[in-house]
Amino acid sequence: MQKKFILAETDIPEQWYNIVADMPNKPLPPLHPGTHQPIGPEMLMPLFPMELIKQEVTTDRWVGIPDEVREIYKVWRPTPLFRATGLEKALDTPAKIYYKYEGVSPAGSHKPNTAVPQAFYNKQEGVKRITTETGAGQWGSALSFACSLFGMACDVYMVRASYDGKPYRKMMMHTWGANVYASPSERTDAGKQILAQDPKSPGSLGIAISEAVEMALQDEQTKYALGSVLNHVLMHQTVIGLEAIKQLEQAGDFPDIVVAPFGGGSNFAGISFPFLRYNLAEGKQIRCIAAEPASCPKLTRGVFRYDLGDTIGMTPLIPMYTLGHNFIPAPIHAGGLRYHGAGAIVSQLLHDGLIEAQSHNQLSCFEAGILFAKTEGIIPAPEANHAIATVIREAQQAKEEGTPKTILFNLCGHGHFDMSAYEQYLSGKLVDHEVTQEEILASLAELDTPLIDAQ
Ligand SMILES: *Cc1c(COP(=O)(O)O)cnc(C)c1O
Q1: How far is the CA of 196 from the centre of ligand 1 (A)?
Q2: Counting atoms of ligand 1 from 1, which one is nearest the CA of 103?
Q3: 112-124 and 50-57 are packed helices; what angle lies between their axes, rounded to 10 degrees?
Q4: Which CATH number fits the domain 70-108+232-454, given the four candidates 3.40.50.2300, 3.40.50.1100, 1.20.210.10, 3.30.420.40?
Q5: Residue 1 banded pLDDT, cuts 50, 70, 90
Q6: For position 453, what pLDDT does the model report?
């Protein structure tokens, strides 16, 4: 009988893993949006506490996790690793499938893994309030939870379309004591500028970032936090992969393929970077695959160049695979994957051929998620369904080839707040949105930022 739960005695890691130390080509520096010169730490100081700025640029391989943070991690870490025996059987595949389940955190996703240390370092440096943006509400709820633990105020700019359409995440944030504002709002110049053009603007992540950054710049005791993309955020998430290595060791296994859904790159980095280290340092050949939506395909169809992180132009230029910062993806239900760009580290790794990417249509993702729910029980977040679609593709490939591959994927969150999306799928109302090449080219044509090199 195969063991289903590999919760094990795994301890919570004592250090985060920083892949920059092992990258053959280091990530390129962020640039000032006006001068196009590399920015120094002083430009980030109004936005982030010093410790996070140091983590953003460090080349140390291991960074210690503060005891206070590990103590809070104990609420949901170590997270369980499961063998997906039910899914394997349904697919009749020789592949072994494992998944790490991050939906057991208080916010229901991997996001608290970085929200807690970010709140901790802000608190340590005397910050009183943190501003942020949120799309569907996962990141906003994780940061609200973390701020409540440290007694800090939290202001969340929530994309208007989600604010109106997905009220339960908003109520979660309120429960943890945060203030939630529909974005674009009248509270900021950025919001007013957008509303002047379009009073009914449904908002976007890029606009909400502009608003949150603007508010942080106005007050010395207020700082800003980002839930993905940045180097320190990706590093905080490596607790996922570090635990998985030990848990798989106890199962007597090691993956050939590691898969995660991809928004800005944090949960993909979290599960895959500790495994990529074996490739970079020991010449192993684990395939690490990022799964993205066909409606927001920055990795598979975007270009590698400098681009803004937001809509208005308040952030530095980041070297990223991007669809252009004005790209507005179709309103698919995987809200966490609707960002226009990928973080600098993941972009460099993709450019160097060290990781892979696949895209999936919305309907095939829900089909995959429902098969998973029926065979494994857990109802996945719509984002996680993208990883499951890739896993199924790879498991079927293994069957055709007759090779007993071992596949590990990140089940980054549960879908309990996304039931209206499942309802729409089940009642046949959901549609696919494949973006056309003309749309991508039109969005990219608006960029005047530095190209990185020949594609
Ligand atoms: C935010 C989020 C994502 C996408 O963000 P990454 O930084 O790419 O991990 C994916 N899944 C869930 C459940 C999320 O909350």
Answers
A1: 31
A2: 13
A3: 130
A4: 3.40.50.1100
A5: very low
A6: 65
Alpha carbon nearest to ligand 1 atom 2, residue: 336
Query: Does the CB atom of residue 135 touch ligand 1 within 6 A?
Result: no
User: Do the domains at 45-65+111-228 and 70-108+232-454 have one common CATH topology?
Assistant: yes
Residue-wise pLDDT for 206-231, tens only, equals: 899 999 999 999 999 999 999 999 99
Q: Which atom of ligand 1 is nearest to the CA of 234?
A: 7
Q: Is 414 in the pocket of ligand 1 (CB under 6 A)?
A: no
**pLDDT digits 0-9 by tens, 141-150:** 999 999 999 9
Lowest mean pLDDT among 195-199, 270-274, 328-332, 376-380: 328-332
Q: Which helix (H) or strand (E) segment is 271 a member of?
A: helix 266-282
Exposure string (b/e) for 371-402, b if CB count within 10 Å is 16 or more? bbbeebebbbbbbbbbbbbbbbbbbeebbeee
Give the CATH class of 45-65+111-228: alpha beta
Q: Is the pTM of this model over 0.70?
A: yes
The domain spans of the chain are 45-65+111-228, 70-108+232-454
Q: Encoding tokens for residue 376?
A: 């494994």
Q: Is the CB of 267 under 6 A from ligand 1?
A: yes
